[in-house]
Amino acid sequence: MLIDSMDYVWQVRARDKNGRDLFRNNGFSEVCFFTYGGAYPNFTVRQMDNLQVELLSDRIARLHWADGSATVNGEFDTYRLYYRKNDPQFDWHLHETDSTEQRLYDLVPQATYEARIQGGRKDAAGRLYWGDYSPIIKFTMPEERV
């Protein structure tokens, strides 16, 4: 059974049952690690909930958010902004940024979009942990300008 917030290491080894093939590194893969469940108990990344939109034209929107004291032990290091047309058949588009705003271009006039943000924080070892998604906001682009 895996323990929550514990670091685990794993490695794979390939072997030829007949012993005829030679593998690089004696068949061992590189060593990989993961943290099961959450981060360390004293290291928390909270959900962001202050995503806002400003419509700049019929095809451009500016999404912005305030970092503030959104995390327990400091501010976010990076962000993931997701957006898509307001329809589950469309995939989420992803923008990663260190800024607290992102402009979206080439949006469709009069189309409704939904967006959400996720904050990320690095621990002392430099590993990046992501908080939960923010609540989804919806916005409708204005009519096309003639």
Task: Provide the descriptors you would attach to this structure in a database record.
single chain, 146 residues, mainly beta, five-stranded antiparallel sheet, three-stranded antiparallel sheet, 0% helix, 35% strand
Give an overview in words.
The chain has 146 residues and is an all-beta fold. Helices cover 0% and strands 35% of the residues.
Class inferred from helices and paired strands: mainly beta
Instruction: Summarize the helix and strand pattern as letters.
Output: EEEEEEEEEE
What percent of the residues sit in helical stretches (DSSP H or I)?
under 10%
Query: Low-confidence parts lasting 5 or more residues at pLDDT below 50?
Result: 69-74
What global shape is seen? Answer: elongated
Terminal Cα separation, in Å? 63 Å
How would you characterize the largest beta sheet? Answer: 5 strands, antiparallel
* Total beta strands: 10
- Kindly report the average pLDDT value: 85
> How much strand content do the residues show?
25-35%
Instruction: Give the number of helices.
Output: 0
Rg result: 22 Å
